[in-house]
Every structure is written in C-alpha cells, then in structure tokens.
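Researcher: Let's walk through a ligand-bound prediction step by step. First, I give you the protein sequence. Second, the SMILES string for zinc ion. Third, you return the three-dimensional complex as structure tokens. Ready?
Model: Ready.
Researcher: Here are steps one and two:
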Amino acid sequence: MLDEYKNEQKIAYQIMDNAIKKDKVSHAYLLEANGYPKKNDFAIAFAKYLLCENHHKKLEEQKNCPLCSRSVENILDIKIIKPEGLTIKKEQLSNLQEEFSKKPLEGTKKIYIIEEADKLNASSSNALLKFLEEPEENIIAILVVDNMYQLLNTIISRCQIINLQNNKLDEITNTEKKVEYLLGISEVSTYIQTVLSFVEALEKTGESVHLKIDQLWFSVFNTKETMLYGIEILIYFYKDVLNACIGTELEIFLDNIKEIEESKKKNTKEQLYKKINLFLQAKERLQYNCNLNLVMDTLIQKLGEMKA
Ligand SMILES: [Zn+2]
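Model: Step three, the predicted complex:
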C-alpha cells in the first residue's frame, strides 16, 4: 500500500498523490530507484493505487477493497515483465502488447511494470519505444531501473521520471563503499582506480588508448564478469559528471571531485549523454559477445569518432 512509503519516499509519494488528485496521470513513469531495495514493491503499490477507483492508500482501507486486497498476480490489469535469463526479450513485449490490445478486463486502465528495465536489449527497447510512442489512453507504463542512464535516451524522454530515495545509499559517504553497495561486491578500489585512469587517458589522448588498452583496462577487467563491473563503474562516473554539469549533487563519486571536474571541462552535456549511451551499448554487446577485445575496440573506436 502506498501509505507505507509516505515517509520513506516523500517526494515520489507526493508526485503520485498529486497526479491522481489533479487527474494528471502520465502514460509512462520511470522510477529511478538508486538501489532502493523495495523498488518493485513500491511500483506495485503505485500501480494498485492508480487502478483502484477509490485510490486506497491505507492498509485499513485496502483490507476491504476487492482490488487492493488481492495479490498482484491475481490482478489481470497489472502485468509485470522481468528479465527471462539475462535480458528482457522482444517477445515478452509483443505478448504484452497483444494482451493489452484487448479491452481492460476489470477496470478502466491497464498497467505494465517493467522490473530491471536496464535488461531490455536492442530489439525489446525498440518494441517498448513503439509502445511508448503511440500511447493509448488507458495504458500506463511503470519502468523500474536503478540508474536511468541505463536506458536509451529516447525511452527516458517519453517518461515522467520519479527519483526514489535510497537512504541506505545516502548514508554511505565514500565512493568505494557506495560502489560496493551498488554492485553487491567487495574490494572495488582497484576497479575504481582502473576506471579513473582509463577515463583520464580517454579524455586526454584519445588515440593512444587503443595501444595501451591491455595495461589500461584488461590488466584488471579480464573476464566478462569483471568487465561488466568496469563498464558499470564508468557509467556511474559519467553520470556524476552529468550531475555536476547540471548542478545537482554527486551521487557516487564524492571522493573524486577533482576527476569529475576535469571531465566536466572536457565534455558538453550532449557528449556526456552520448558517452553513457556508448557504455550501455558496450554492456549489451558484452552480454552476447564473449570477445572482450572486440567489445572494447568498438567502444574506443566510437568514442574516438565523437572527437573527430
Ligand atoms: Zn482499493
């Protein structure tokens, strides 16, 4: 129930409450969860709140409500999509589309929640995009993702973004611990140092990165798993450069203001978006292609083309 989050997610709660009261519900929401552990439950509570005609928020109210009291699996107008294996597949979206093209089954709206939306691949991203581009009045999308730059720009721009507080992440005050918390691993200091040196080389001497890649990158990120961590940290870094660029607080790289400022000087906002997107593409390619060298070569080549 939404009321459960009244204090923990003050801002998100108010945005949603207002949208309902003013009858201004968007057709797509992007919940940027920042590692908030109850993100998916929150999305479900939000979906029920939207769907229930009486907009029940409180536990007592919900107990007697035929819709709110039901578990989400039994509500036909809410559909949850999550990765099957490593990715969310195109068929999952076309099945949804087909199902939703029928009339609402119970109420007046249908809602789909995409958990771990960063697991959309190129073809399912495109399928989703088509769906978002031609919104039907009674269909609402809720995308859940830890870091919104894990999604394509074109998807982000079609959603209302709601930032969830992650008190646990906010309480952690140094870069290393924050990265450990987000990646769910320990001993990340070498990873972070490697990423920072890589960024420095990349921003300074685009061309020689190719020649020094073994030392700069593969000395540490030499398996698919570690390389995914490396790219993830790159994304966190550039997201913070973007934060610095638009004047919002840094989220992760609190101990590296100098490095953030350096990169900020060398990139426009558009270039930062583009770089983050290239890292996302590399991450996706890595999931299908086990040739780490090839993935890295392509990435560096595309980064190089940006400068030209
Ligand atoms: Zn209800």
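Researcher: And what stands out?
Model: The first strand starts at residue 28 and ends at 32. Strands lie at 28-32, 78-81, 110-114, 139-145, 160-163.
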